[in-house]
């Protein structure tokens, strides 16, 4: 996005890809309320500006100030129902001076205030106790019947075999209990979770997975939807 035309094309392509998932896999409607956790520089936001109607609302937050500043300047000034907040949450990789622990952070929104929550490549950079807290917050702010779309790197029999055979695009060689990482000194660089751990979190927080799980190409599997693994669920 900041380095020239190629990045702009990737920016647009990624945004349109996820916009398609929102509509076709999650049934997103123009009048719904959306929370985008880890909105970044708005890759997944821009297509929504042409889709949400006056009754729809978008709220995004991120821990990186640069992205929030960009979104406020380029999006909020033109679309008043699109809002962006900076969350000063610590992350060793992306916000090492953050004020708040992710494991203690409360999303700045009321209970049951959103129809749809999305996290794209967020839990791929967070540790177990942190994503457990975020799962509880997702369940808290979702309305009953609301949906969430979250992407992961998931370790199961298929992906583990590919990782161990050195076929994966990411070398998750460091085992850390419930997860693996590519960087032993900074786990948040990229985190891959055991599937059983992830499934337990959905069950614990009343989020029913909308089968099937859409596995990704990151480990070089043959059949995939996107790059990362995607799970869509409904609050019951």
From TrEMBL:
Organism superkingdom: Bacteria
InterPro entries: Methyltransf_11 (IPR013216), SAM-dependent_MTases_sf (IPR029063)
Domain called Methyltransferase type: residue spans: 35-150
One example GO MF annotation: S-adenosylmethionine-dependent methyltransferase activity
Protein name: Methyltransferase type 11 domain-containing protein
């Amino acid at each position: 996005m900041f380095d020239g035309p190629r990045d702009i094309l990737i920016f647009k392509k990624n945004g349109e890809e996820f916009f398609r998932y929102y509509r076709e896999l999650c049934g997103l409607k123009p009048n719904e309320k959306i929370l985008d956790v880890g909105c970044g520089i708005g890759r997944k936001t821009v297509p929504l500006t042409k889709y949400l109607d006056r009754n729809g609302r978008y709220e995004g937050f991120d821990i990186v100030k640069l992205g929030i500043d960009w979104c406020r300047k380029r999006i909020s000034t033109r679309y008043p129902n699109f809002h962006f907040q900076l969350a000063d949450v610590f992350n060793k990789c992306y916000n090492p001076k953050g004020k708040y622990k992710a494991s203690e952070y409360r999303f700045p929104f009321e209970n049951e205030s959103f129809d749809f929550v999305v996290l794209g490549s967020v839990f791929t950079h967070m540790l177990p106790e942190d994503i457990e807290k975020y799962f509880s917050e997702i369940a808290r702010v979702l309305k009953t019947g609301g949906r969430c779309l979250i992407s992961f790197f998931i370790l199961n029999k298929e992906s583990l075999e590919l990782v161990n055979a050195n076929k994966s695009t990411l070398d998750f060689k460091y085992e850390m209990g419930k997860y693996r990482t590519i960087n032993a000194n900074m786990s948040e660089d990229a985190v891959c979770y055991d599937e059983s751990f992830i499934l337990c979190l959905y069950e614990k927080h009343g989020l029913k997975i909308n089968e099937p799980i859409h596995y990704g190409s990151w480990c070089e599997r043959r059949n995939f939807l996107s790059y990362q693994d995607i799970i869509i669920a409904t609050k019951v």
